Amino acid sequence: MVDLTVAFPSVLAAITVDPTIASASVLAAALAIGLAAIGPGIGQGNASGQAVEGIARQPEAEGKIRGTLLLTLAFMESLTIYGLVIALVLLFANPFIG
Fold first, then answer.
1. How far is Cα 45 from Cα 43, in angstroms, rounded to an integer?
2. Tens digit of pLDDT per residue, the chain (98 long)?
3. What is the pLDDT of residue 14?
4. Handedness of CA 58, 63, 67, 73 (dihedral sign)
5. Tell me, what's the pLDDT at 20?
6. CA distance 27 to 52
7. Cα(first)–Cα(last) distance of the chain, in Å?
8. What is the reported pTM?
9. Residue 29: is it exposed, middle or buried by C-beta count within 10 angstroms (0-12/13-18/19+)?
10. For residues 94 and 32, is the Cβ–Cβ distance under 8 A?
């Protein structure tokens, strides 16, 4: 017989967690990733649309517009990744669990 607390230390933590804290953490993680994806998603759509419009108006500036677009898209995507990090912390390294 294998002792589950030795083989899987997280099993013991999952058993002793208050269900209210666990459910609130899951809800907070879902809100963190959901809200963190809305803003950058809208921003990326607007930036891409404006870049296409700019390239259509000035085809000779395509290289500069594309470079700037990719840089700004990377910055916007990092905001979503911050939300993902917060969600993962709440799910797997929850500071609210005693």
1. 5
2. 445 455 555 545 555 678 888 888 899 999 999 999 999 999 999 999 999 999 999 999 999 999 999 999 999 999 899 999 999 998 888 777 76
3. 52
4. positive
5. 86
6. 38
7. 29
8. 0.68
9. buried
10. no
Tokens 């870049």 — which residue? 51
Taking the C-alpha atoms of residue 55 and residue 97, their distance in angstroms, rounded to an integer, is 52
At 39, list the tokens: 């803003």
Single-letter code of the amino acid located at 59 = P
Q: What angle do the packed helices 19-57 and 62-92 form, to 10 degrees?
A: 180
Q: What are the strands, taking DSSP E only, across the chain?
A: none
The one-letter amino acid code at 1 reads M
74: Cβ contacts below 8 Å, ≥ 6 apart: none
Both tokens of 48, joined, read 């891409």
Cα distance between residue 55 and residue 60, in whole Å: 8
Q: Which two three-digit tokens encode residue 60?
A: 């000779």
Asked whether 49 and 12 are in contact (CB, 8 A), the reply is no
